[in-house]
Design goal:
This protein is an alpha+beta fold. It is 32% helix and 35% strand.
């Protein structure tokens, strides 16, 4: 099976406007969706990501605050999925709860060693 990284681009401003109940409902929706993916054998792993991070750049390895502090969009989490093809992952990603509040999903196929040969 091929592996795919599903990056969750969240609208941080919209998420901050949600009530505690709405945040809990969103978290529950993610858990329900992840359970469904696990039952179908498509889920490898997944987690939320803290909005702050560190960026290391350049030959001198300059350390900066993550790129998300001034942006209203953050990568709020990820799912590592598996499937025989991209089309299946696209159909699964359409159901991702990230889309409920203006978020988007980005699908990145994971390269295998044989992909580097061609």
């Amino acid at each position: 099976m091929k592996q795919f990284l599903l990056l969750l681009h969240e609208n941080n401003e919209k998420l901050r406007e949600l009530s505690e109940q709405e945040m809990q409902a969103l978290a529950d929706a993610h858990m329900k969706w992840a359970s469904k993916l696990a039952k179908t054998g498509n889920l490898i792993s997944g987690d939320g990501l803290h909005e702050k991070g560190v960026l290391i750049t350049g030959k001198d390895c300059v350390i900066k605050d993550g790129p998300y502090l001034e942006s209203k969009e953050i990568i709020g989490g990820y799912y590592l999925l598996q499937s025989e093809n991209l089309e299946t992952i696209i159909e699964l990603a359409k159901e991702c709860p990230t889309h409920y509040y203006g978020g988007t999903t980005e699908i990145r196929p994971i390269l295998n060693m044989e992909d580097y040969d061609s």
